Structures are given as C-alpha cells and as structure tokens.
C-alpha cells in the first residue's frame, strides 16, 4: 500500500520532526509531505485520498502550544475531520510522551508515540506499506474504543544509525551529539523522554554531518546535547572527558578550516553542568569555540532546593564554574528557575544572593519561571509563590540588563498550563478514565 505521511511542519518543533523526516524519507512506498500551514495540510490530505493512498497525519506537540486557544480549537477540528476521512492521526514530542491519555482523549489523536520515535515510526509506517498491523509497533499508545492500549517502551536507539536531519532536502538544524541524561531532575522532561543513560554520536559521524552542512552553505555550527561537557561519559561523573572533548572539537575545527566555519559549543543549545567546569576543559573550549558566552545550568541558589529536585550539584559548584569561565575570558550566563515547587522565601533569597555573586563575577543571569510540564515528576505541581518584593527585584534585574529571559511570558504560560489541567486538556496520572492495557 502506498502511504502518504503528512507532517504539520511547525517551526517551533522542527528540530523534533527533522530526524523523523530523515527516517520516513528512506522507506519505500512512503511519501513525506511537509505542511507548513493548515491549508497545505488539508490539500495534502485531499490529494492522498484522491490517489487512494493511506493517509497518516502527524504532529509534534509541545505543552506550551496548547495554551493558545485558537491553536487548540483548530487542532481539535482538524483531528475530527481527519478521523471522519479515515486518516490515521499520530502525535509525538514532549507533550504526547508526558500526557498520552490527554493526547488521545482530550485532543483526539489516534496514536501517541512515546519517547524517541525514529525506530517506532519506521516500524509503524513499514507495517502500513506491507499491509500488516501497525498497532503492534513498540513505543506507542493508542485508542481502541473506550480503552487505551500501550505496546511498551521502544528500545533506545543508536544515534550513529540515524540521520539527525534530512540533509538531502537541504533541511538542517543544530547537530545532536548526545541524547539521554542520567540525572533525572524532577522539573525536567529530558530524562523521562530520552532515558537516563548517555548515548553519544561518534566523532566520525559528527564530522560527516558537519561536512554535509558545509556543503549546504552553513557557516555557524551549533550542537544539541543536555550537557556539552558530558560528551564521552557513560555514567554520572564530576569529571568531564576533557581529552575526548578536545578530540571532538579539534576534529570539527579541522573539517571546517577551509571554509572558515564557526563552532558554538557550551552556548545554547549545548549548555554545561557546573560541576563539569574546570580549568582544563575551559581552556580546551577557548582553543576551538567562537562563542564568548558559556551557559551554566544552576537553577537555584539554595542547596536544599538543588537536593530536592535532584540536580546532583551544589551552589558551590556553580560559583566555581562562574569563576573558571570568567577567568578564562568567557562570560558566564547562569540559568535560574524561580517558583520551583517546594521552594520557600528563604530559598528564593538565597537564589538572589547567588544572582548577585554571579553579576559581581561579570556574569549574566538567564531567569526562568517554573513551568509544570507533563511527564516530569513535578509536572502536577503548581509553582511556589513568589512574593511581590522578589518579583520587583527580578524585574529590576531584567530592566537593568543584568538578567534576561521570558520571565513575564513564562509566568503567564505557567498559569495557562495549570488551567489546561483544570479544563481536562491535560490528563494527570491520577486520571480515572479509560483502563490501560499493555501487551
């Protein structure tokens, strides 16, 4: 059977979709269409139906997309239309993984893909092409009348066996070099989507994709990793593999020498954990990278809160990282979250003290408001209250340029996500609806 896979290619989720496009492009009998708006989606669906192709429509969903009432209403309307046309609707991404029941019953998708989907999407589409049962695919949850059936988690993939993006379409994005995180921070979705073991793309493969990007005309090279100084590690460690990091950066630098490409490493989207920062590894970065800012994930200035959320480092680690970064010619930019559940006023005041110390060391503060994300252990917990006087101090820091970030819009987002729970759009884990069956 000929299958048309129509992906709603929203720019906010293209990094999630690009590896899946790379997978689907290589399956005989599958035609992949990228619909950049609703009109293109409807046109592709109607053409597939006219050609008697099996129609599969896929979305990658972020929870933050659903707070937009217009988007949510349109999505539900589209999914209802597609169900009437006997199209299979599939969803993936952080929201589908974190809230599969809400994705199926509140939004109206037929199938939710759980976690990384390169191999599960490949299996699902090949079943459709071959006329076999796609609902035996590992790594999916789907509706069957009033029941939900989960097929079990798919095995973690080997990054070297999968393209990070479909470069043959001239579609690229920052190159993912590491997937998975062993720390399992309670506010974060990463470990619960991609697993708690590091998996690294080999230097050989990284250099291959860097060269393909160069052929397309890319000049600035960025990398996706939960921690750029974890490259090569196999388990939790306070010591980075400095030698392997230098081998990686040296190899990329050599591949780009002839075109004058610039390497951005340790900046977004490849921030660093503070305990991995030491004099030797910062000097390696200085030899090869073009960014002059290194982003450090601190999250709180309270050791009590850091232990509570299982960060695995201390405030002292943050201060040491800031010192080493600043003394070696970089600007430290420190990520801070306020409103973490369980946080007290005393904790928030300690965080303000850390902020002041970072600023005294020529650093900047990237400040965030806590978002209750489905699939994270704290995802069902609302933010801690932030007193007015502390909010005023944060506002002044942002106004002075000493801090930056989407603090005010994130506060509004957080409130809207809580309302999604109240409205039943997000289904909490204590949901008493359809029964779960696993086979």
From TrEMBL:
Alphabetical list of PROSITE patterns matching this protein: RADICAL_SAM
Residue ranges annotated for the Radical SAM core domain, each copy included: 167-416
InterPro entries recorded: BchE-like, CHP04013_B12-bd/rSAM, Elp3/MiaA/NifB-like_rSAM, rSAM, rSAM_horseshoe, rSAM_sf
Keyword rRNA-binding: no
Keywords assigned by UniProt, alphabetized: Iron, Iron-sulfur, Metal-binding, S-adenosyl-L-methionine
Domain of life: Archaea
Pfam families referenced in this protein's UniProt entry, alphabetically: Radical_SAM (PF04055)
Required cofactor names: [4Fe-4S] cluster
Recorded GO MF terms: catalytic activity; iron-sulfur cluster binding; metal ion binding
Annotated PANTHER family: ANAEROBIC MAGNESIUM-PROTOPORPHYRIN IX MONOMETHYL ESTER CYCLASE-RELATED, METHYLTHIOTRANSFERASE MJ0865-RELATED
Record's protein name: Fe-S oxidoreductase family protein
């Amino acid at each position: 059977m000929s299958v048309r896979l129509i992906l709603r290619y929203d720019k906010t989720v293209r990094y999630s979709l690009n590896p899946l496009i790379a997978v689907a492009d290589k399956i005989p009998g599958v035609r992949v269409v990228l619909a950049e708006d609703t009109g293109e989606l409807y046109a592709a669906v109607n053409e597939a139906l006219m050609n008697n192709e099996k129609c599969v429509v896929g979305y990658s969903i972020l929870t933050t997309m659903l707070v937009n009432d217009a988007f949510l209403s349109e999505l539900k309307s589209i999914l209802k239309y597609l169900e009437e046309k006997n199209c299979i609707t599939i969803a993936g991404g952080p929201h589908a993984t974190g809230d599969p029941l809400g994705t199926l019953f509140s939004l109206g998708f037929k199938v939710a893909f759980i976690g990384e989907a390169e191999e599960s999407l490949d299996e699902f589409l090949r079943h459709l092409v071959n006329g076999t049962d796609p609902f035996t695919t590992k790594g999916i949850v789907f509706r069957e009348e009033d029941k939900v059936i989960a097929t079990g988690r798919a095995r973690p993939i080997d990054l070297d066996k999968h393209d990070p993006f479909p470069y043959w379409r001239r579609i690229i994005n920052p190159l993912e070099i590491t997937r998975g995180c062993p720390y399992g921070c309670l506010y974060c979705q990463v470990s619960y989507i991609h697993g708690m073991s590091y998996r690294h793309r080999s230097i050989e493969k990284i250099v291959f994709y860097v060269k393909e990007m160069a052929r397309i005309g890319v000049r600035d090279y960025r990398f996706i990793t939960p921690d750029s100084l974890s490259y090569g590690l196999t388990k939790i460690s306070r010591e980075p593999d400095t030698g392997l990091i230098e081998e990686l950066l040296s190899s990329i630098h050599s591949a780009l020498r002839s075109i004058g490409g610039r390497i951005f490493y340790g900046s977004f989207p490849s921030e660093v954990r503070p305990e991995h920062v030491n004099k030797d590894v910062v000097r390696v970065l200085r030899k090869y990278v073009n960014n002059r800012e290194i982003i450090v994930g601190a999250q709180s200035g309270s050791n009590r809160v850091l232990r509570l959320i299982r960060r695995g480092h201390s405030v002292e680690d943050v201060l040491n990282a800031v010192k080493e970064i600043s003394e070696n010619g970089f600007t430290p930019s420190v990520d801070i979250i306020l409103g973490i559940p369980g946080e007290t006023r005393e904790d928030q005041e300690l965080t303000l003290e850390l902020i002041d110390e970072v600023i005294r060391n020529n650093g900047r503060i990237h400040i965030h408001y806590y978002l209750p994300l489905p699939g994270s252990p704290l995802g069902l917990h609302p933010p801690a209250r932030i007193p007015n006087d502390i909010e005023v101090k944060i506002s002044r820091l942002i106004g002075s340029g000493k801090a930056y970030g989407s603090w005010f819009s994130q506060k509004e987002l957080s409130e809207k996500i809580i309302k999604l729970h109240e409205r039943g759009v997000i289904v909490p884990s204590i949901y008493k609806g359809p029964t779960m069956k696993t086979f």
